[in-house]
Amino acid sequence: MIIIVNSKVTDTSIQTSLGKSEYSYYFLFKQFMPALEQIARVIPVASPDEVDPLFHQLSSSGESVIFLSISPPQQTPLHLRCPTVCLFAWEFPDAPDRMWDNDARHDWRYVLTRITGAIACSHESAQSIRNLMGPDYPVVAIPAPVWAHFGDLLPAGGWQPHSGPRSFEFSGNIIDSSVLGLSADGLVQHLPRPPRHSVTCPVTAQPGPWRLSWNLFRSWIAALRRDRHPRVAPKPSGEQPPPSQAGLQPQEKSRLELSGVVFCSILNPMDGRKNWIDIITAFCWAFRDTPDATLILKMTHHDLESYRIILLTLLSRLAPFQCRVVALHGFLDDDKYRELITLTDFYINASNAEGLCLPLMEFLSAGKPALAPRHTAMLDYLDEDVARLVETSEELASWSHDPVGILGSRRHRLNWESLMQGYRDCHTLARTNPDAYQRMSVNGWQRMQQLSETSVVAAELKAFLNTLVAAEQVEAEA
Amino acid sequence: MKILVYSAMNAETILQNFGEPEYSYFFVLREFMPVLQQLGEVEVIEDPARDVDHRYHAAAARGEQCIFLSFSPPHLTTLGLDCPTIPVFAWEFSSMPDEAWWHDRPEMDWRWCLEQCAGAIVHSRQSAMAVRKLMGEEFPVIDIPAPLQDRLAEARRWLSQTSHTAEASIEIARGTLFDTHDPELARWLPTEEDIIRAVAEARSVIPIDENKGFRRGPKTARRITLEHLVAWYQQVLASRLPERLRRPLDRWAVRTDPWQLGRRQLKLDGVVFTSLFNPHDGRKNWVDMITAFCVEFRDQPDATLVLKLGHRRHEDALQGFLMLLPRLPAFRCRLVILNGFLDDEAYLQLLRATHFAVNTSYGEGQCLPLMEYLSCGKPAVAPCHSALADYISPDIAFTVDSWADATAWPHDPRVAYRTLRQQIDWASLRRAYRAAFECYRERPETYRAMARAAEQRMQRHCSQATAAERLAHFLNPVIEKTPA
User: Fold this and answer.
1) Which of B105, B135, B211, B277 is the most exposed place for a label (fewest CB within 10 A)?
2) Cross-strand partners of A85
């Protein structure tokens, strides 16, 4: 079999795409590659325009050819001669069945009837496609084969919680709560003070009919005139202090000394699903008086200024706290990433919904237990054996790319109290029950092996694609 | 005993300042008044700094005991008086302010205030506990809910005399009304373009433009003129016209500009859920209240949710509500958004038409409207947290689950995370709505038992007898400690 694949992002463009919606598709592309290569000859193409010429050229040899578009359905190329399969991640329980922006492809039914089949990354999203297209639609749930890349990190017998100091060398921007001199009071010193006592409200006489009429007449004239003056938003009161410079200067090979229990999360702060505010507030609340707890947030967004002041303000609003929050902004190569996994004790996820969550799967593959909710894609691999689960409850949501924001879908409202308590439970587990921690570590590693070992994923891909190819041939012969 | 009382608003100013932060303190004072009058001679003070000590010394000279009850939060209570001062205040969070963020404003730290007070009166056990945590176990504090139960005796009598099956028609003298079963409503909803803009602004995809979007863009001269004509009609002309002329003009005014306060009429049927609240109070969580209702009863045209709002700046609030409606999946249940001040008659009519009182707040200091409805035998759909935990239970309410969530004290400009509120479990709110609906429809006996239990609960919780006993018990030692 020959598989032609495309991805909108390439190795060279990934740096500037960090944090944009298509960037996670680059990682999917990268992760699936080894499994695809086990079952077929894989030919990457930069543009869909190259697909059909290649298809004609290759299919003359008699070998079956499939085009795998690693992209959401609405961005999948249609009307190709080459049988097309769409591989995508989706975090909602239902799939779009409306069009918008005058683009029929936003209605996934339009796309899915015009392609050969679809591969969703989770069982929930595969089911959403069956609900949309009927039970016989060729769709399958196959997770990204991440285990092979990180499974080798697990030491014999599984990880023990760290106890001693560790250090991590990082090049990029660092926002480290332990050196910022954070103060909540500092946020408001410039503000004007409110009145000291409650002011007794003066009685104003109810105006009579003539006064009311005169007032309305004046208001009418003013309204007619104001047509020419645009409205402006009220300016913030008081003289604004200059913005903080903290974290603005990138550091070369800066050495972070870490100790105690280290929690880590990798997220794009502009991705609303990730609830990074809750991740930080629950952490600082749980460990207000606990110095041996550190939260590392590796931010995956190309623009530091999109979140820097928000983060600094948030930390100030939480100060004082004894624990430590470190935000890292910059590129981690594979070795640095593996090092970060190694020094972490727990991976944190507090999302409303996930299509897959590669970093969580990667940390689990390396044998690092998690603190995370069990919903959407996480249903496929998380339970009490591998994670401290965070409670959630269903709420309304709109599909993330629906411009009208129709609240027709669902997501999962995070139980903050449960997240906060979960942090404390994890800390206690690491401190007092290393054996249980170690069991979780091995369980996570095994779970991910069963789910996402490359050969397992390759076999699933092969079985699915073979049925598609066979069906295509039957159709062609008929 | 002489009891001096103060609240920032009084009966004359309350109407003009409808919905402002201090306004609920006036209502609480009003409820306490009869009980205070049983205990001593009550005098309302206009300016505490000027008037309290003057009266206190005069009373002391006569050998009479005197105490000052300030219906205000501690940081807004006049301190440094000779007269023993007790703030009476509502609080809905797990902890009270124990820091001052400005050196020149020590009163932001409530310890600083309460140390100068003879004690504190709050309205819930949670608040009393928070005061003790702040001031120590010895500090004189008591929780007394506003004793409003007796005032509603006449309402209960009236309700028992009229049948629930009678079609209720509610006459609102001055208000606005938006009703999802009104075919005209579509004319006043935001367009898809407005919504796309608002959603993009909320997602920070585009910057907020104050001159574009739902009811923000410039109006034509014709529209401005029409709106002023309607305003003139509603404010000046309408009440001076004979009924014969008024009826068609009322219809014209509402069709031309429903945003202007005027006479409205509301007919309710089906199973009616009602919530009374101030739409600018972020704690009330009206988004969950509406979304859970409209999703749960999407195929239930005979389920009605009435939101009775009270705020003089009603337009901003209403815009928020109307922005939400078109984003909800199609629903057949009925949502009525009623804004305005109800006179006694209209209040009773709404009460009679209601089957359940609804609350979906993040926290309550006591929640007067809910206590009123329960006192009149209307079971609730409500969470069981903060002050609600003192009276909500499964025998009088369909309870909604909640969990703790970090937040800031409401008057803290730092918005520093220092205390906990309660986030609502949306799925459980849906279940509670459904259970209430089915209970009323299918188990009328259970419904009636809940109604009776609610009346009885509130009699224990917020009757004048309960309050008088607790207040006397609390005030006596406080008074004895102070020189008369």
Assistant:
1) B211
2) A68, A117
